[in-house]
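Give me the fold.
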Amino acid sequence: MPLRVTFELEDEDLSYFQTSMKNAQKRAVSMSTEEILRTASKHILDANRTKLPSFVDERVKKVGALIEMMRDEEWELPEEERSNVLAALVYLSEPEDLIPDEVPVLGYVDDAIMIELVVRELRPEIDAFMDFCRYREGERARNRNPNLSRDEYLAIKRRELHERMRRRRQKRLSSMHSSGRPRFRLF
C-alpha cells in the first residue's frame, strides 16, 4: 500500500539548498567539464544499482537530461546556463550531503529535493534542449529548405531556442517579482 507524504519547505529550509548550490558553484569552477560529467554519470549509475524509492528514482532520471545537455556538442549551451547546469551536477554528485547516500531509503531524499529544485530552476534550459533534440531528429526526416545545410538549419533553431530559453526565464522572474512574493533562486 503506497503512502503519500507531502511537506513544505520554509525559506530557512530552502536556504540550506541555496548555500549548498553556491558551494557547488565554487567547486565547479575548479573542475573540468569532463570531470564533472564523469562524476555525475558514475553517481547516477551507483544510485541506479541500489533500490531507490520511486519518488527518488524518477527524479534521478531527470539528471540524465542535464548530462546529455552538457555532452551534446551541437547544442552549444551558453556559458551562464552551462555553469548553472555544471554546478547542479557537482552538487548532485556529492555522496556526503545533508543525508549521506549510504543511508538506506533516506540517503537520496535530499538529492530528490535538490533535483526537484534544479529542474524547476532549469526548466527553460531543459525544455529548449529537448525541443532542439526533437528538431534535430525531425530534421533528418523532414524536407527542409534546400538552400540551408543541416548545420545552418540547426544553428537557426539553436539560436531561436536559446533566445526563447532566456525570455522564459526572464518572464518567470518578472512574474514572481510582480506578484509581490519573494522569488526563490537556486542560482
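The radius of gyration is 18 Å.
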